[in-house]
From TrEMBL:
Residues 4-146 form the Flavodoxin-like domain. It comes from the Bacteria. It comes from Pantoea brenneri. InterPro entries: Flavdoxin-like (IPR001094), Flavodoxin/NO_synth (IPR008254), Flavoprotein-like_sf (IPR029039). It holds the Pfam family Flavodoxin_1. This is FMN-binding protein MioC. Its cofactor is FMN. The keyword Acyltransferase does not apply. GO terms for molecular function: flavin adenine dinucleotide binding; FMN binding; oxidoreductase activity.
Amino acid sequence: MADITLISGSTLGSAEYVAEHLEEKLQDAGFSTQMLHGPALDEVPQEGIWLVVCSTHGAGEIPDNLQPWFEAISESQPDLSQVRFGAVGLGNHEYDLFCGAIRQIETLLIAQGAQRIGDRLEIDVLEHEIPEDPAEAWVMTWKNAI
C-alpha cells in the first residue's frame, strides 16, 4: 500500500495538475504514492493517508469526475476512522461558495470518522496564476505533520 493516496477532482484540469505536482514533491521527500483521478469508492483504500485535491465547479459543486465517489461515501457511509487526510481546494473568490467542493468533502470525511492532518489549503486561482506554487509551500509543512 502507498504511504499517501492522492485523490483529485477537476473540471478543467487545474486540480489534477496540482495533485500531480504534489505527488512529485511527496515522492522526492521519500513517500510512496498512488494517484487516483476521480476514483470509484472501491478503488480507494479505506485506511491510511489520503490527500484530496479538488476544484470547485459551478455554484460550489464537486467536479463531475469526483461526484460519484462523494455520493458513494454519502450513501454507503463507510467507517473511515482508519483514514487521515489532507485537503487542498482550488476556487475563485468571486463566487459565493469559494472552495465549496473541498469543504463539502472535508465535512463528509470527518463525519465518517476520518481525521484531517493540518489545515485545509484553499487556493484562489485569481490570486495565484500558478496554483502549484502555494500548494508546494503547503505540502512541505503538511508532510511534517503526518
